[in-house]
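Section 5.1 Outputs to date
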Amino acid sequence: MRNFILGITFFLSLQLSAQELSLWNLKYGITQKQAIAQIAKERGLTDPEIVNDTADSDNTLIYYSDCSFAGEDAELVALNFYKDQFYRAIIMLKPKESRLLTKYDSLVDDISTKYGKPDKKTYSFDYPFEEGDGHELSAIKSGKSNIGSRWSIPNRMPTSTVSIGITDAAKIAIFYNYLKISDIVEAKEKNKNLKDF
């Protein structure tokens, strides 16, 4: 019986770890053209802004302004492509200030429902502020808070991450990252920067 329970537990953990992270049902590695077509078809969003990186022709950014994400108005949904493969997304939400912390907590719960508990969670305030003092928004706007969570998908050997945090502009930032490609982009950028030394 014990082995049966261990086997079921192991099987369930494999099922959860095999879960692929996706934004708007976009799979990592799809092309820019495929992403634009899928977003137009499934979300009705057309004519994104397309920005080509003048310093690195392998990088392209497409973004949508003033659209919906997770039931909230998004100021920006940006998708990064490297060599025409989708690998990173950034979403900026601007909820009403009175709902900022409540909305953040709700989004953390929603992401946790899909991907499990975050592997890293930070919720702290710097002096003279502290949690529960009624001045959390002032702490956030003055840069005296550190509020964020991160999920690694799968947990053991992550291939993707999703992170969420509150900026000092009282916005909620959500980041989706496909590590296989973003590690290449970051190494390339680091090598480029090292040439300055």
